[in-house]
Design goal:
Helix content is about 65%, strand content about 5%. It is mainly alpha-helical and about 170 residues long. It has a domain of about 100 residues. The chain has a two-stranded antiparallel ribbon. The chain is extended and about 55 Å long. It starts with a helix and ends with a strand.
Length: about 170
Amino acid sequence: MAKRVRAVLGRWPMGARLFGEAATALDAIRGVPVRYRWSVLGWAVLNWTLDLACLFASTSAFGLDVHWERLAVVYLTVQVVRQVPLTPGGIGVIEAGLLAGLAASGAPTGSAAAVVLAYRLVSFWLLLPVGLLGYVLLRTRFGEHSDAPVPTAGMRDVTTGVAGDSQRN
């Protein structure tokens, strides 16, 4: 099957490049031990669930009566659309998608706009300083001039296939 896909996509330069990038990503995933894959999947599902709970809390705070199932469909649809990297962090794309989805669910547009702004304030803008702090701490601890080992226990180098306990930057 992969050979057929490669043959079809290989006719176009963009298709060949995308197939190559997908193959590289799959090789990288295969280099991660299975127990870590399940752990990452569990944390990702928890992240999405808590993000949906944040949106639900925003709708409740503004008194919108949108059933949780409709809200979940709107949320998941917006999450799929935001995978196309049009803007950093989905700025504008997420807001427009959520506003359209909430309005289509029967919410008044003014209240829906307030919900979207409150949700994005909590789920995006207030997290930026936390991310910046994490970046600074990691940069000072594991920066390019640091001699501290980067933890890679159980990980395999996808270029060599060699497993390692830790490696230097």
